[in-house]
Amino acid sequence: MKKISVIIPTYNEEKNILLTLKSLTNQTLPREDYEIIIVDGGSTDRTVSLAEQYADKVIQQVSEGIGGARNDGARIAQGEYLATTDADTIIPKYWLSRIINDFETMKDVVAIGGPIYPREWTPFNKFFFLMSYNNLPRLLLKISPKLNFFTFGPNSAFRKEAFFKAGGYSTLGIVDDVEIVRRIKKYGKIYYDLNLIVYASARRFEKDGYFRTTLFQDFTTLRLFLLKKDKIEYKGYAKKKYD
Asked: What residue ranges of the chain have pLDDT lower than 70?
C-alpha cells in the first residue's frame, strides 16, 4: 500500500504537464511511497502520452466535472492519503512529506490545505494571488482556529476514509474544491498549513482579467458558504483554453 496518492485532472495540458510531473517525481518522500494518478478529460493534444512517461496510472475521466475527475482518481488510489493538484502547478520537493507529517502528527485532522503562489513571479501576479487564494484563509485563522475551511484544488489533501465518507467532491462547475469542506468537517478537523506551498500558473488571471477573476472566485466562494447555494453551474469553467 502506498502512503499517498496524488490525483491530477488534465485537459489539453501538453504545455504544462511535464513541469508538474517532474516536480512531483523530485520529492523528498521516496518514490515507492507514493503514486501519481492522471485523470484525463478527453485531451486532443499530447497530454496523455506525456503523462504516461511519469505517472503511475493514466485513466480517462468518466464522471462529471473537475470534481468528478478527482473522484475517478480517488476510486483507484492505493494511498492511505489523497492529495490533489493541477496540471499547471509546480510542487516543492517537501510537499508530500509535509502532508504526511501533518496527518501523522494531528490524528484528528481529515483535510489539509495551504497557500498558492504564482508560478510566474511578478508583483502583479503575487498581489492578485494573495487576494484570491491566500488572504482570506490567513484572516480567518487570526480570528479563530475553527475557521479553517479552505482546501483549494491545486493544494489539498485528505484522509481517504474521511474523503469517501463525505461523498468525495461534488459536481459543481467551480468551487467544488472548497465545497467539500462543508461535508468532510463532520469527520474531523481542517488544517490550513501556512508552510504547505505550491506554485500555480497565473494564466487564468492573465487571460480573463485580474480583477474579474479575483471577484468571480471570491464571490462564488462567499455565495457557497454564506448563502448555502448548492447549485453553482459553470460547467465549462475547468475546460476553458489557456495557453
From this structure: 122, 124-150, 173-174, 202-243
Its pTM stands at: 0.82
Reported as a single tens digit per residue, the pLDDT across 139-190 is 665 566 665 666 788 999 999 999 999 999 988 766 777 788 889 999 999 9
Q: How far apart are CA 14 and CA 38, in angstroms?
A: 13
Supply the CATH number for residue 160's domain.
3.90.550.10
Question: How many residues belong to the chain?
Answer: 243
Q: How many folded domains does the chain comprise?
A: 1
Q: By residue range, what is the domain housing residue 104? A: 4-239
Q: Can you say whether the dihedral through the CA atoms of 180, 185, 188, 192 is positive or negative? A: positive
Q: Do β-strands 34-40 and 89-90 pair in parallel, antiparallel, or remain unpaired?
A: unpaired
For position 177, what pLDDT does the model report? 73
